[in-house]
Amino acid sequence: MRQRHGQDRRRPHARKHRSGSRLQESVIKPGADKLLREVFSHIGVPEKKPFVPDSFQIEAVNAINHSDCLVTAPTGSGKTWIAEQAIEKALKMNKRVWYGTPLKALTNTIYARFMDIFGKGTVGILTGDIKENADAPVIIGTTEILRNQLYDSMHSGKDLGCDLVILDEAHFLGDIERGVVWEEIMIYLPSRIPLLMLSATIGNTHQIADWLSGVRNNPCRVIEETKRAVPLYPLFFHPSGTLYPLMNPGGKSGLYKKTAEFAAQKNPPVMARPGKLPPLGDILSVLKHYDLLPAIFFMKSRLDCDIAIELCSSEILDADPERKDRLFKRVDELLSGNTHIRHHKQRWNLENCAVGSHHSGQLPAWKIIIETLMSEGLLDAMFATSTVAAGVNFPARTVVILNSDRFNGADFMPLSPTEFSQMTGRSGRRGMDNIGFAVALPGKFMNLRLMAKLVNLPPEDVLSQIRINFSMVLNLLLSHSPGQIRDLLKNSFASYLLSKKKALTPGKSVFGIKNQNDYLWKDFLLHLDFLKREGFVDEKDRLTEDGIWASRLRIDTPLLVAEGFRMNLFPKNDPALLAGMIASFVNEKEFSDSSSEKRNAPKKLLTCFVKMKRMLTPFAHTMLDSGFDVSPLFIQPSATLYAWASGESWDTVCEMSGLPEGDLSRLILRTADNLHHVANLSDHFPEIARSAREAKDIIMREPVMTGYSA
Length: 710
What we know:
- Residues 1-26 and 507-514 have low confidence and may be disordered.
- β10 and β11 (242-245) form a beta hairpin.
- α23 (575-583) runs antiparallel to α26 (635-645).
- The chain contains 29 helices and 18 strands.
- The protein folds into four domains: 22-45 and 230-456, P-loop containing nucleotide triphosphate hydrolases (Rossmann fold, 3-Layer(aba) Sandwich); 55-224, P-loop containing nucleotide triphosphate hydrolases (Rossmann fold, 3-Layer(aba) Sandwich), CATH 3.40.50.300; 466-551, Arc Repressor Mutant, subunit A (Orthogonal Bundle); 556-710, CATH 1.10.3380.30.
- The chain is globular, with a radius of gyration of 27 Å.
- The strands form three sheets. It has an eight-stranded mixed sheet, with helices on both faces. An eight-stranded mixed sheet has the order 5-4-6-3-7-8-2-9, sandwiched between helices. A two-stranded antiparallel sheet has the order 16-17.
- By secondary structure, it is of the alpha/beta class.
- The two termini are 34 Å apart.
- Helix content is 44%, strand content 11%.
């Protein structure tokens, strides 16, 4: 018989059972409130029926023939089907479609799906670091690529080569980091091209539609569906293992009586010591007892995701030898083409406990393995950070929420209605579940009353996140005069919202801005004045030659890199060294250089980096003195990319960088994207542009590429 991976050894500190807090060693056992008998009786797989589109889907497909359309419907309701029907009709009429997404992972998922539906030759993908079949009639890509194509179209005077734009996850219009790109697309997109927007979580749909109707001179239909495809039932998991309704039955507001009694206790029983995870193996056993698996557990950190799988036992899977064998075979099949992750340190947990850890610190290829197994129903649980809630489609019967707050990058804040909706949107699989569940676990950072409120709260309003940056100013000046740009800025969603707010509160300042309609214009003028002083724009408000080529640098820090070109700081015939230099401009995370990192850096790299940093410092201070942010340059990302581009092994580069695999992969991908923009400067810097293309080719190799192309 074939020997299975890991069967000849025991994993370190593996336990058969009871890996949780000793405070509850023999307490947790399955139990359920009597009110749940009726609810649990509905658990199961719905009867197979021919697909019949819902009325909102038909309405949306018809609407896009005559107007722009904004569709909001709960996750799993079938919004992608609307897009598929619109694409199919466009293809029959020999038209072209651009499908924009916010995430590369979602882009790859949609790409694979659409190739199956429409055929491989019909679909292409563009993500900055990946370009395949770019002339296909259907393009799937990140929104940054679409925005850049609109810049090029405005500059060249040529119309954008498509006849329909679909924006998935349209609530990203309100994303702090990325929303500006979505708003630019909506403002710049020619009105002849219909716009179909899809989202599950927008509160102010009619505001957005009213704004778009005004700036695009096209009607924008709003089509809303509030009913979930699979009903959601929220539960409370008592530390004893007994399940209770979270809320009062019959639609009454407030906590269920017994749940409220627990919430009111000053010293309630606990499931784990402070700072420790609850006994997740026992919790899984309870969920299994009531047929509530598979489940997605939302954890607060990457580390918690990785610890969680170690707290799970093999008992559930051992009881089902047939499923265990199917899981082993499928894992072998999925890993057969990737030698790097065949020996992943979490493979034992995956194969023997049917659980996986999913977070941004892992390689994209490994995350795709977890997603595939989860979507195929071969895993009992996936432990994930809340970022998995948005954009990627692999729902479960149950979602388990450990905390009612979430770290936003700076502070822990209570879950918003939108975040809660995205999490619970993963519960209940259409066509596989009659009912989905959201389970709240007790703990120090779980507010049960807040959770009960969130169940019925509508999504939050999406607000404008548009802001002026140097790349935007340079690219608009390619094709617009300042007066025309002022008119464009008046078309922003921010200006619309401010005008509406001013109409409601006449004479009052909004957001501390006295002249509300001109704040974007004033910020534009500040950027324009700086560009004039530094020689990128002339006194007639036209781009100089430096300004023209600098506009091609659609990256985080275009002016700092442009100044590096003007000072001849980048190597011309050393692709590995160029990759290292460009990596220092990637604003992926904050690094902290130590003296040892500088000592250990190769002499050639260190010499080039130190000279570049010294020469750019005066320009950086000029930017800072003018009120613009400047990110510091670090040797750590430079040394990391230089080693990788020089042919060092993945394990060696991981160790020397100190970065988790996912972070290292993302740094490489972002560097590749920046190199792509440098390569666009071939008319002015042909040698460096050629080296940039070579550098991109040598850093885009396994295991970084796995999972990013079909």
